[in-house]
Write the structure tokens for this entry.
Amino acid sequence: MREVYKNIYLAELPLPNNPLKYLNFYIIKDQGKSMIIDTGFNREDTKEDIMKIFKELNLKPENTILFLTHLHSDHTGLATYLEEMGLTIYASKIDGDLLNNSVEKLDSMWQDTIQQGVWQGLEEDQLDIEDHPGFKFRPTAHINFIPAIPGEYIQIGEYNFEIIDLKGHTPGIVGLYEKEHKILFCGDHILGKITPNITFWGFQYGDILGTYLESLDHVYNMDIDYLFSSHRFLVDDHRERIEELYDHHDKRLDEARKALRKSGRSTVRTVTKQLQWDIKSKNWDEFPKAQKWFAAGEAHAHLEHLRALGEVTMEEEDGVLYYSIKE
Ligand SMILES: [Zn+2]
């Protein structure tokens, strides 16, 4: 654990067997109320790590806020455990509700994920929701939370954090901005080295890649000296990193256009197979099942963005979606 700014500590919580490696766990300490940001996976080792930190910094659970940036299980896995310990939880209404709707297999978030797989043409891959990493490591009980409403503030000692809407990586991801000290806790909105996963969340959330790019525009214009991300190294220059992320998605959109030109009317699955992936497998059949969900979701988000731009059309046939480029 190290102090990264006055009274702000950073500890790394391991995420075994996960390409993200660890969660950057932040603690903002004050004599009165303190705050921790996100939790790591629901694992015994992680509980012990957090307990050690509480002891070392002399944090009192009843005087500590747990701020959840977004619903992913590497950020929320121990929310129930920490709530039982006496912490007060803040989460955005959207992600908090989604989290509470993903406890059981039959809950709406998993049923929606299964439906999306059918739309994407993944039925022939015979994926099971049990293969979905989000399902495997999900929290196993509901949480009670105070809605984190963008524009409202949380005061911790000398810091006055504004809750900031960062939606895109998830439908309701939020960050904390301290204007005077030029600090932004951004969750997974911007990461060093790794490109944040942007996936299709269902038509009710619209063009989510477009939404993500707008959230990037917003942060680009913010005055930030310290960008505290949730994984990997800390980014020095947020504008430089945002430009790299714009480039990444531009290239991806181009790949999707090329795939549609080559294959004509295509399912999301057909397009996904033609995109470049960092995974070491020769072809789609060898692609790890867990990654097929993510890959198709990402391709789908890009196709929906092209549709929002008016470049692509979509139609449904026998429950499967087909995309075509407008010539
Ligand atoms: Zn995430």
Q: What stands out?
A: The chain has a mean pLDDT of 94. The chain has two domains: 2-103+138-236, 112-135+245-325.
